[in-house]
Amino acid sequence: MSRLAGRRVLLIISGGIAAYKALELIRLLRAAECAVQCVLTRGGAEFVTALSLQALSENRVHGDLFSLTEESEMGHIQLSRAADLLVVAPASADILARMAAGLADDLAATLLLATDKRVLVAPAMNVRMWLHPATQANMASLAARGVTVVGPGVGAMACHEHGPGRLAEPAEIVAAIERLLAPGDALAGRHVIVTSGPTQEPIDPVRYLANRSSGRQGHAIAAALAELGARVSLISGPVTLADPPGVGVCHVVTAAEMLAACQAALPADAAVCCAAVADWRVAEVASQKLKKSADAAPARLTLLPNPDILASLAAPGPLRPKLVVGFAAETEHILAHAQAKRARKGCDWIVANDASAPAGIMGGAENEVHLLTAEGVESWPRLPKTEVARRLALRIAGAMGG
């Protein structure tokens, strides 16, 4: 039986050339034994017909907020509550803006405002519209309210431009729906290694070299993967965070200890290297606290490179995870340095962020990242680290075939 059998999706089709893909989306959902109720906006009706949607969904198509028959039974409330999930596909820049503003000026916007169920949006628009600060601010606002996003993809568009803004393919949207409606088993049977936090390289008994990492992002990723059913091995440097529930945790201090713990955790289906590993260690650790005096020269430290954990896990071999994800905290030329790191380390994906950004990305509660893959670059708006983690976990599940 399909994982979506017996589930109910309320599909909102907004205006845009990508609306034609809603027909294939409905066909796939119905093939999975999922009930589909359609709401067609005025803009969406310029691209697809209610008759087509009705024929495929086998249900009446709704579009009028002020339908006397339906509103006698408070139809806009009933529709919003009867579904297990609301899906907006395609989600135009206009409907995303109205959602962010909390407007209720048509049936679709009213349903989205009146619902108490989860909402999934699949944006589709011109690349300039998607990258416009207003759209990015709207997406950040929606994400903060718990709205899930699938896509947009990167590629050629009907307007003859190229870049992010393409509607996610119907099969990808169905996979996202499955992960939301049946999240417990999207990564069932999969083992994922996650590194988190800083490492500390001792100089003497009281001093050490380290990076400014709280571990919030790595711990959130471990928790999000566990929520999708994965068996997670979290290798954590020194942090003040509680261990995530349902996750196996190995606490380490140095980079050498972290590498050894990662190797001991293999084999794994995926590895996410989120830890801020110190690049250097002191060649000779003092056995006693280094003292300073007024007439003494500053202590000279000889540094040696630490082991490269990401490159080690990404190296070809029988124990290499199918998917290896690295992180790049950069202060300049973010994408260029991240692309170079992805090639140099041999990993599949890199998640890059600006470590010099205001409001403290390093150690803060939010993150603004770029996901770099073989297919291109996907820029996410500034989001809570828990939401970044959830998005990344869903992407990992998709790549693993979950």
Topology:
Elements: E1 8-13, H1 21-31, E2 35-40, H2 50-57, H3 68-71, H4 75-82, E3 85-91, H5 93-101, H6 107-114, E4 118-123, H7 127-131, H8 133-144, E5 148-149, E6 153-156, E7 162-166, H9 170-181, E8 191-196, E9 200-204, E10 207-210, H10 216-227, E11 231-236, E12 248-251, H11 255-265, E13 270-273, E14 280-282, E15 303-305, H12 309-314, E16 323-330, H13 334-345, E17 349-354, E18 366-367, E19 369-373, E20 376-379, E21 383-384, H14 385-399
Parallel strand pairs: 1-2, 1-3, 3-4, 4-5, 8-11, 8-13, 11-12, 13-16, 16-17
Antiparallel strand pairs: 6-7, 9-10, 14-15, 17-19, 18-21, 19-20
Helix pairs in contact: 1-2, 1-9, 4-6, 5-8, 10-14
Mean pLDDT: 89
What is the rounded Rg? 24 Å
Total count of domains: 2
Main sheet: strands, sense, barrel: 8 strands, mixed
What does this entry look like structurally?
- The longest helix has 15 residues, at 385-399.
- This protein is α/β, with parallel strands linked by helices and 402 residues long.
- The chain has 14 helices and 21 strands.
- It has 2 domains: 8-181, 3-Layer(aba) Sandwich (Rossmann fold); 185-285 and 299-399, CoaB-like (Rossmann fold, 3-Layer(aba) Sandwich).
- Helices cover 33% and strands 24% of the residues.
- The model has no long low-confidence stretch (mean pLDDT 89).
- The strands form 6 sheets. It has an 8-stranded mixed beta sheet, with helices on both faces.
- It is elongated, with a radius of gyration of 24 Å.
- The chain has helices at residues 21-31, 50-57, 68-71, 75-82, 93-101, 107-114, 127-131, 133-144, 170-181, 216-227, 255-265, 309-314, 334-345, 385-399, and strands spanning 8-13, 35-40, 85-91, 118-123, 148-149, 153-156, 162-166, 191-196, 200-204, 207-210, 231-236, 248-251, 270-273, 280-282, 303-305, 323-330, 349-354, 366-367, 369-373, 376-379, 383-384.
